[in-house]
Write a structure and sequence with these properties.
By secondary structure, this protein is α/β, with parallel strands linked by helices. It contains seven helices and ten strands. It has two domains: 148 residues, Rossmann fold (3-Layer(aba) Sandwich); 65 residues, no CATH class.
Amino acid sequence: MIRLENVTKRYPGGQEALSGLDLSVDKGEMVFVTGHSGAGKSTLLRLIALIERPTGGQVIVDNQNTRRVKRRKIPAYRRQIGMVFQDHKLLYDRPVFDNVALPLIIAGVRRRDAARRVRAALDQVSLLHKEKQSPETLSAGEQQRVGIARAIVTRPKLLIADEPTGNLDPDLSLEVMRIFRRFNEVGVTLMIASHDISLIDKLGCRRIELEEGRLQQEVDPWL
């Protein structure tokens, strides 16, 4: 599903966020990316989402080489990927329903079909009863679940999350990870950046550790 071959990402000024990175994630896997602040976790996810392109090497996602995706094709490429962020990135002037519907509206999905899919996504994160509320009236955990519903409403093959539990307490963090696990169990591939090793260990998934933009180690609980 995901393959990185000798990937380097260098920012203006010479900062090298990733250096000679090789790794792969199989279809249907749930993989965590760990490492200190500045290790390259967010950069890795941004390359996969085609928010940025590598300076060198190849990033291949679902048999597509991101270096060859033309600018006008990027929106279509991103529709196969759900993205969850630590700060939610919700629109506080719109209700929960409209926040979740936004990717479908952008994609031109018919209103009736969009409404059905939004309610199905909200139901999966146990927030269907709050579809008319403003996001600012929700708890931090509920806001994160709205972000997850928005990420899955397009039925993506791949879900990536950047520190999705960074602002949550341990109980809410585990709840969010269990939601991700349920998606994984129905075939969605997940790649999640997190610094919470104790939480990751509870889930028994492969862990990729980065240090200064390089692969430091891989921990696979099944080996």
